[in-house]
Amino acid sequence: MTTRIAPAPAPDVSPIVSMDMITKTFPGVKALDQVKLDLFPGQVTALVGENGAGKSTTVKILTGIYQPNGGTIRIDGDPVVLATPDDASQAGITAIHQETVLFDELSVAENIYIGHAPRTRLGLIDKARMHQDASALLTEIGAPFSSHTQLRDLGIANKHLVAIARALSVDARVVIMDEPTAALSHKEIEELYELVETLKSQGKAILFISHKFDEIFRIADRYTVFRDGAFVADGQISDIAENDLVKMMVGRSVEQIFPQTNHEIGEEVLKVVGYAHPTEFADINFTLNKGEILGFYGLVGAGRSEFMQALFGITKPSKGVCRINGNIEVIRSPADAVANGIVYVPEDRGKQGAIIGLPIFQNITLPSLDKTSRKGFLKLAEEFKLAREYSQRLDLRAASLDQDVGNLSGGNQQKVVIAKWLATQPQVIILDEPTKGIDIGSKAAVHEFMAELAAQGLSVIMVSSEIPEVIGMSDRVIVMRDGRIAAEVEGDDMTPETLVRHAAGITTPTEGAAA
Amino acid sequence: MSRLIPVRETILAAAILVLLLLISSRFAGFIAPSNLANVFNDTAPLIILALGQMVVILTRCIDLSVAANLALTGMVVAMINVAMPGLPIPVILAVAVLLGAVMGAVNGILVWKLSIPPIVVTLGTMTIFRGIIFLISDGKWVNSHEMSPAFTAFPRMELLGLPVLSWAAIITIILFGIMMARTQFGRSIFAVGGNPHAAVYTGIDVGRTQFWAFVVSGALAGLTGYLWVSRFAVAYVDIAGGFELEVVAACVIGGISIAGGIGSVGGAVLGAIFLGVVKNALPVVNISPFWQLAISGSAILIAVAFNSRSGRTKGRIILKSAEATQ
Amino acid sequence: MTTAPQTRHVPDRLNSRAARIFKSWEALLLAVAIAIFVINSFASPYFLSAWNLSDATFNFTEKAMIAFAMALLIISGEIDLSVASIIALASTAMGLALQYGAGTPELVIIGLTVGVLCGAFNGFFVTVLGLPSIVVTIGTMSLFRGISFIILGDDAFRGYPASFSWFGQGYIYWVFTVEMLLFVIIAVIYGVLLHKTNFGRAVYAIGNNPTGAMFSGIRVARVKFILFLLTGLMSGVAAVCLTSRLGSTRPSIATGMELEVVTMVVLGGVNILGGSGTIPGVVIAAFVMGLVTFGLGLLNVPGIVMSIFIGLLLIGVIALPRLWAMAAARRTP
Question: Looking at domain B38-307, which CATH architecture does it have?
Fold first, then answer.
């Protein structure tokens, strides 16, 4: 796991950028409290911390989007003020953000050079030179497309390459990579590592933010740990063990323990027969039993979420039926799905899950209004009663039930979304990446709760890309690949090796090329 | 690679050609070069305003005050001309552009600094500008005999066979072509409308860009204000009433997405020309001019329905591609 | 390592109802309305006459009827700019029917039906084809009024039956007009629909997050379609009232009214971007606009100048609180 590529660099270099005693407060929240962070030339520094530790605030301060309330940023030892994103890029700091912050309607070259395009003598953008320079950069990083390509015609991995080319184009000395591998495939991640090595050899300082420990131990030279907005420790990666790093991160030692799944599995609740979609998935057949946790594993883009959304009635499948409690039901809309006892907790909480702008209690009662109202007229007392019951059950932390759900933390928003669905008393709950982007403590709580639901006789479908979670929680696992079911494994067959092999298509010959 | 020929603009240009052929089958004289030049000249104000509106719409805003801005500027320059007939035309032009830009800046500052939704701001300033015309003119008209001959002659003056009004449109088109493709401001406009979130990260100030878009739109409205009153040789409260919707219509027909970020100079110009051709053709082919409103309404609906179909994002074809994950 | 399953008490509400009402937009607006009323009654001796005040209500009752439906539509994140053109088309249809000898009941039915059909037309483009409502209704705004122009040209329909004039000119009791009664009934219906029903809750949910609402099992397209139907219907009602009051139909009838309706809704505190707003707010906004127009009218201020006040009011009521907030933020660094 921890094979490192480069030897630890000499310790006597001085940092390019150093943040000292940086504090940043938002109304009511101290996001950063006197933190320090040093970035050295030719070294990769991993910034480690749970969600809410202050990593993205740090990135935004370094890129001039936020202004710190206190402390000093020094570049080559001289204090600087990064008042705007422009100042930051003048200072040689550039970032490759988590989400691709690029422009679909512009060409690749324009995306690389927006804001600092080469000019002609008249002050106009010099298109010929821009494309020439862009092509050179693209060749350098091995990008397989032309600088004239419209960005929207590129896939996510290639867009990432454009973001990297953009970072290189400003001739930056400091490159920030905020979870750069989150959306990449295995092969693309390898290519990214090579790029990081190139950047290092050019003497650039790299700030690397990642949740994946294997990644950190593979490419980082140094680490800095933040917890709850405060600095905890920093040092050489070679001097620390993975477990100790985790301990520093969460302030306690955490072992991935999954709750005992001693629930009873009952009769068939849902049977999916021959679900197919013109572009996203095909030949989906499986059954789900009462009180069972069924895991769906696969690489990003294997079609798992797409299938789940079809099952929930968001998109229409072109073929297939589903049988619920033995009756064939047609699900054309989420409303149909809910009526049939199937609910879906989406991956994208902010957009698809919580209704930000509405208070907590209205979020919880939204799909259950038929129960809390009379003849279509609202009954607020009933609504509060229902909301109270389920928010207690999920141990929701909030100032009041009348509070806007947008003011809650991510973990609590997730609880509201789950509460909303449990209040409908469903038979099948689909959880799409339920622990993605939430901290280790909340993760365990979600796992516990999932087991509890199954024990109460609810059937759970869990889509997850985390192998330990899939194996630890599921009674049975379906592996998807290229929009089809690649394998169904249970019991002792549920090993990391089997899942990865099926997901990547190593064991069985690829037959999924036809459509 | 697929985008070397802009699809939307080509289809719209083809539609205009078909329209011209149909009209010429009823009345051949319509496609005579001199008549086409007249149609273009008649459409010039719409083209100029549509280009200004395009910039605003690209940044996810809308400017409903352009017609009122035009009318107010027109009234002011007409009154200046009455008061000081000797004032040279370049000064009048400068006043018109400047005054229009100031009104645009008022819209822009409210959108930028107070983050009031553009539709609310420009609805408000639209009625305010119209009201101010009444206040300064006392509701009276400024007629042609009160204006100086130089004032009214300017838009009609011919250069290389085309009137100044047409040249104004042509120069605006060329300047916009350069501005949108080759300047930092032009690219920022697309960036702000296409992905405002990303624009911030790129160091582009979204609000400031929107502000300047309103200033550009206002300046063009001011310019058109002078050209309009001098061409028709009359200024009163209600000139160009409701013209703001025709301007928005030209943009929509030209394929400029109301959601921002998508559109082109060619599209806005063709959208305006389409409406201009329809307007000029109706009397020629013996259709009552009362049909014009309904036709432009239908054209908007067809254009927006069509553009949304062609612009719909294609699904990821993961089933068909063998190279998706290797 | 998990959080202990202790139950925490989360209170239902923090602020009392009274505190929330006191701090609301509606309270501010009501204060403005009262101020205008007081200023007007000092400015003109004719202002406090019951008959004058009754006449003044015609300034806003027809617009307000549409504004209530428009408020719901705007809260849901859509807009309908074609309402004034729907009035023109509905009025033209009534005029046409009159030529074929339709009586008052038929005229009313035709007016309302055309309104609903126009609403359905808008709703089809927005909810079935998924097009942005602002563009669709800018298009239908031209189309609907365009059809009126095709039918009528420069002409006008006149000669509506005497019984038809009851809607726009009749009185229920003393100074209370039929339109006032309709205004009150419609305000109550829309107030209940928005604030007291599941449908109203769905409207708010959709306005705040249409995707989230869809993922919560709300039939978003159906709700929006109904809202377009309701806006069309209300435009039909307004067409009946306006045609009855004017006693004639011209294709230019109600020109520009869509902007006044939107102004009324926004003034009433409805967020133009959707998600929030109340019917009481729109009711007060209707009175504010009516009182300003009427008061200035008594002072012989021409209509076009009044529109300056309306425009300033529209921008001012949104800008001032924001300016205050900015000033306050500057004082306390």
Answer: Orthogonal Bundle (1.10)
Cβ atoms of residues A247 and A226 within 8 Å: no
- Residue C193 placed within a domain: yes
Helix (H) or strand (E) holding A383: helix A380-393
* Structural domain boundaries enclosing C194: 50-316
Give the neighbours of chain B: at least 3 Cβ pairs within 8 Å.
Answer: A, C
End-to-end CA distance of chain A: 38
Per-position DSSP letters for B21-53, written without gaps between them? HHHHHH-GGGGSHHHHHHHHHHHHHHHHHHHHH
Are B219 and C95 contacting, i.e. CB atoms less than 8 angstroms apart? no
pLDDT along chain A (515 residues), means of 10: 43 83 78 90 89 82 90 91 86 78 86 85 87 90 86 80 83 85 72 86 89 82 88 90 78 62 81 88 92 88 87 87 88 90 88 89 92 90 92 84 83 87 93 78 80 90 86 91 89 83 63 39
Q: Which of B201, B204, B321, B323 to mutate to test the interface with A (most CBs of A within 10 A)?
A: B201
CB neighbours of C35 closer than 8 A, spacing ≥ 6?
none
Chain C CB contacts of A346 under 8 Å are 215
User: How many Cβ atoms from other residues are within 10 Å of residue A405's Cβ?
Assistant: 27
In a 3-state reduction of DSSP, which class is residue A66?
Answer: coil
Which residue in the block uniquely carries the two structure tokens 């080559």? A76
| Residue B41 one-letter amino acid | N
Report the range of poorest mean pLDDT among A3-12, B176-185, B250-259, C81-90. Answer: A3-12
Residues 6+ apart with CB under 8 A from C188: none
With beta carbons less than 8 A apart as the criterion, state whether A218 and A4 touch: yes
Number of residue pairs across A and C with CB atoms under 8 Å?
A: 124
Residues whose CB is less than 8 angstroms from the CB of residue C209 and which lie 6 or more positions away in sequence, other chains included? A351, A354, A355, A356, A357
- For chain A, domains (ranges, CATH) are 16-92+172-255 (3.40.50.300), 103-171 (no CATH), 266-341+426-507 (3.40.50.300), 356-424 (no CATH)
Are A85 and B202 in contact, with CB atoms under 8 Å apart? yes
Q: Classify residue C260: in a domain, yes or no.
A: yes
Q: Which chains have at least 3 CB atom pairs separated by less than 8 Å from chain A?
A: B, C
Q: What is the pTM of this model?
A: 0.83
CA A113/CA A99 separation, integer angstroms: 19
> Cβ B202–A65 below 8 Å, yes or no?
no
Number of domains in chain C: 1
Distance in Å, alpha carbon of A384 to nearest chain C alpha carbon: 7
Q: Report how far residue B64's alpha carbon sits from residue C107's, in angstroms, rounded to the nearest whole number.
A: 35
Residue A317 · residue A324 · CB < 8 Å = no
Whether residue C190 contacts residue C69, with contact meaning beta carbons closer than 8 Å, is answered with: yes
Residue B280 and residue B46 in contact, taking contact as beta carbons nearer than 8 Å: no
Of residues A105, A185, A512, nearest to B190 (C-beta)? A105
Contact call for residues A437 and A51 (beta carbons, < 8 A): yes
Strand A70-75 and strand A205-209: pairing?
unpaired
Give chain A positions within 8 Å (CB) of B319.
279-282, 482-483, 512, 515
Q: Do A510 and B198 touch (CB under 8 A)?
A: no
Asked whether C269 and C25 are in contact (CB, 8 A), the reply is yes
Low-confidence ranges of chain C (pLDDT < 70): 1-9, 15-23, 332-333
- How many C-beta atoms lie closer than 10 Å to residue A298's C-beta? 28
Predicted complex ipTM = 0.83
Interface touch C208/A392, C-beta < 8 Å: no
Beta-carbon separation of C139 and B301 below 8 A: yes
Per-residue tokens: C84: 């004034």
CATH of the domain at C92: 1.10.3470
C-alpha B2/C-alpha A498 separation (Å) is 42
